Each structure stands twice: as C-alpha cells, then as structure tokens.
Amino acid sequence: LYYLYGIPFGAHRGGHSHRRLQQLLVCVMGSFDLMISDGTNSQKIRMDASDVNGIIIVPGIWRELDNFSEDAICLVLATEKYSESDYIRNNQDFRQSKNI
C-alpha cells in the first residue's frame, strides 16, 4: 500500500508496465488522469474523488498518470512488494513484449 500525493503541476507518474504485479488505484482526494494501454487499445480515464471507484490494473498493461489537481491523492494497493525486475519501463520494450 502506498500513496501518491504532492505531485507538482505538469508532472507525470507511471510510464511503465508490470510483469506480475497487480494494482488497485483509487483517487481519494482531488483528481488526475489515468491512461491505460494493452499495446493496441488505449483508454484515458478521469479519476476523481467524487467518484470513488477504483481501477484494477493487471500485469501487461501500460499506465501513465498526469494532470494531477493540486490536492490529488492516489491510493495504490499492490499485490507484491517492489521489485525492479518486475517493471517494463520502456514503451518500445513493452510493445515488443506484446509482439506488436
């Protein structure tokens, strides 16, 4: 479990995919945009605390978070502890892993 907060205006978070880890993202205050992609299809979702739904992100999905409001807080529940080897941080490598 961790939180993203105090994100400066114009900053981006995410920009990666995971090999095994799953995450539940919930906007608990403010708002931000979440872009998810399976390598072929992309979707942009406005996460807003007034709509307290969460998004489950399964392995093999690219995610990017941006457009954070000044008061944004994102709660992240993860299925595993941090492991650098679980990350795919380069979008080209991600697309190659999907055979795209």
Can you offer a commentary on this structure?
This protein is mostly beta strands and 100 residues long. The chain contains one helix and nine strands; from the N terminus they run βββββββββα. It has one helix at 91-97; strands at 2-5, 13-18, 23-29, 31-37, 42-48, 54-57, 62-66, 73-78, 87-88. The strands form two sheets. The protein has a five-stranded antiparallel sheet. Strand 4 (31-37) and strand 5 form a beta hairpin. The longest helix has 7 residues, at 91-97. The protein is globular, with a radius of gyration of 13 Å.
Main β-sheet, spatial strand arrangement:
5-4-7-2-9
Secondary structure class reads mainly beta
The count of helical stretches stands at 1
Mean pLDDT: 95
Largest sheet properties = 5 strands, antiparallel
Based on Cα principal axes, name the global outline.
globular
Query: How much helical structure, as a percent, in the residues?
Result: under 10%
Radius of gyration: 13 Å
- For the termini, the CA-CA separation is 32 Å
Q: Kindly state the number of beta strands.
A: 9
Order of helices and strands: EEEEEEEEEH
β-strand percent reads: over 45%
Unreliably modeled segments: none
